[in-house]
Amino acid sequence: MEEKGTISIHTENIFPIIKKFLYSDHEIFLRELVSNAVDASQKAKSLSSIGELKGDLGELKVTVKVDKEKKQIIISDNGIGMTAEEIKKYINQIAFSGATEFVERYKDSNADKSQIIGQFGLGFYSAFMVASTVEIDTLSHADGAEPAHWICDGSTEFTITNGTRTERGTDVILNIAEDSEEFLEEARLQTILNKYCKFLPIPVEFNGEVINNPNPIWTKSPSDLTDEDYKNFYKELYPFSEDPLFWIHLNVDYPFNLTGILYFPKVKNEFDFQKNKIQLYSRQVFITDEVKDVVPEFLMLLHGVIDSPDIPLNVSRSFLQADANVKKINTYITRKVADKLNEIYKKDRTAYEEKWNDIAVFVKYGMLSDDKFYEKAKDFALLQSTDEKFYTLEEYRNYVQANQTDKNGNLVILYTNDAEKQHAFIETAKNRNYDVVKLDHMIDPHFIGQLEQKLEKTTLKRVDADTIDKLIETDAKPESVLSEDETKRLKELFEKAIDNQNMTVGVEALSVDDQPVIITLPEFMRRMKDMNRMGGGGMMMMGNLPDMYNVTINANHHINHRILKGDDARGEKIAKQAYDLALLSQNMLSGAALTAFVKRSVELIDKE
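-> structure tokens emitted (608 positions)
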């Protein structure tokens, strides 16, 4: 038997066009061909189970071989095989008709390659990205079938003759083109197989070894798995990582199909996204590790696997953004994560609190990104006090409301973003029986803003943003013991000693237990600068402005009374010393100013 034919197509050779548009993704040819071989094997298994495939099914497997001398790559299977008529139907018509539309639309186009890949599932025809000619040697499972051989050089011509195969199945032989000989290197093929075929459901053999795990745990029932199974699979995915905090096993078949396992890893305190840690599969075939549109952005720090047959192998970014199933999956994952966190919180709050510093970034980012997630998460999002106690938002309101409500009826939550650096301010707050919470993640400037929007009559103030009496204003205020003239002179002495236009000096009546000089950066300016560091866009101009500090002189402190008793020269010297002490407490004294402070301190001690 020999048959030649041509395909009606408006170009002499589509191979250069395919290569031009798909070259950057040329390694996917192996994924496509091995996936086809796996499909053929699974079909054989299905037909055997219903009695339509006669004889022994045998051990189903796919084999990939390299022949460097012949410059060939051979992908073999013992699946259902094809007749000559089926080759013409499934290979010629489907491949070339798709290619016709492809050529017509993109032969003169500079269109985005990812969109082209996404719109045309070229499948088998991707072989021509690396091969000068492609051959198929196949024998169908059908009774009385004759072996068939097909060959094509990527032009409009093909030839079908009698084949040589004696057992059911298919060999796809790629005669590798000169500019693609890198794929004749075994290490190169091994890398591609590990990337795309690691969890295919049929054994894939390369160099005499099975390179895949056909039964990954996401295909199994959670009831059949132990914690060790989940941890071992995590190590299989990420060999050098610490054990995960916990995981979520996804399994849904309506209104879409989805399986997978998402792991909560231990993350650093800083807001450092380690993207591309979630792998997207379709029927155990790897698609991509860029899952931004499938997984909510706030969960991009998660690790694991998602598998959905409702997502085709050749997907583009535009497809993921537009596909209805992808949007449903995104919503489902959000809900499952919220439910899992709530379950852990309710089941073992102590264990949840121990994990809070690792999972806080997920929860807070989720609350910022998704209103539905916020509504669920507000019941298990925690605030951590500087005394290491944890509270839900409602619990914390109840805890501080009586003592931290200002004269206007607003609840004031005091926070620190650096408990060590702001220790003196925290102690001042505690001396008034106020509580201070830690909000020291890089995401917290945004989280603080959200809490003020969401929580009724609530404001958050950093504990070092002003004097404690101004942070929580009440009707009860200390009275100044200084006269108007003394207040004016004290202010002038400090302004002269400081001599810095970025420091605004004011004299206020504070508690005698408060510091003699307090330096603060107003809350508004702090937030603008924090937002700018987080990439706050419109806050760029504010973020670049010099820091404008408030210097509050405690009218009731005995050191400031001593300043007033001496002459101006001595008073200015003590004022400078008190001011430098305030700078030192804020970690703002360095260089020559620090050296001068130390020298002045020695002189003052020596005179005592």
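The first strand starts at residue 2 and ends at 6.
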